[in-house]
Amino acid sequence: MVGKQVELSVPVQIDADIFRDFAAFDVLQRQKRWRRPLVFALAMLVFAVICFAQAGRRPGAEIMGTAFLVLGLGLPLIYFGMFFRSVAQESRHMGLSHLRTAYRVELGEQGVRMRPVGRQDQLQAAEDCPWDQVYGAWRTPQAIYVYVSSARAYLLPNEQIPGGPDAAWNLLSGYLPAGKLHQTR
Q1: Is 25's pLDDT higher than 60?
Q2: Can you say whether residue 82 is alpha, beta or left, with left for phi > 0 and alpha for psi between -120 and 50 degrees?
Q3: What transmembrane ranges does the database entry give (predicted)?
Q4: At residue 158, does pLDDT exceed 80?
Q5: In Å, how far from its chain's centre is CA 112?
Q6: Cα–Cα distance between 39 and 48 in angstroms, integer?
Q7: What was the pLDDT predicted at 90?
Q8: For the chain: N or C, fewer Cβ within 10 A?
């Protein structure tokens, strides 16, 4: 992006709430990792119902039904509890107890550029991603997430985008094909 005009520059500040919203979006909505715990819970609940239906006819049916019920509800709850606990621990580790400047994202003709905090004026510290290599962009009610790879995203919280999220989304729509643009509710 050297020598090319920057169309939108977003100095991004992140806190624990913004990070938690992103982590929940990425894991639960984008990667859909809620599916396996749900399938497991449903299977265990079906087994529990079958066992409870056999109560009085087969010895130990109530105990087995209770065990399936506890497993079916307990393990998914533990899975999600551990996920949100790890997100909270990571937030503390990153020092996100209060809003802090993380990076600046620039969108322009050549692509996406990220400048890390403390080195935002150094060109060699910038990370560039041309538009044709951008993995995709997701718009949520809280933010726009620009993924430069399947595992790396830049967060653009709506209230921090100059001109608002519509301006940023329109800019992204002008450079990315429709298949790489995703909107969630």
Answers
A1: yes
A2: alpha
A3: 38-57, 63-84
A4: yes
A5: 19
A6: 14
A7: 95
A8: C
Tokens of 77: 């709850």
What torsion, rounded to 10 degrees, do the Cα atoms 13, 18, 22, 25 define?
Answer: -150
The residue type found at 153 is: A
What CA–CA distance (Å, rounded) separates 59 from 47? 16
Residue 179, helix vs strand vs coil: helix
Residue with tokens 């933010």: 143
Question: From CA 108, how far away is CA 111, in angstroms rounded?
Answer: 5
How confident is the model over 94-114, as pLDDT tens digits?
999 999 999 999 999 999 999
* Residue ranges with strand state E in 56-169: 100-108, 111-116, 127-130, 136-139, 143-149, 152-157
Starting at the edge strand found earlier in the chain, the sheet holding 181-183 runs 152-157, 143-149, 136-139, 181-183
Please name the residue ranges forming H helices in 54-102.
Answer: 61-93
Cα–Cα dist 76/70, whole Å: 10
Instruction: State the residue for tokens 């399938």.
Output: 39
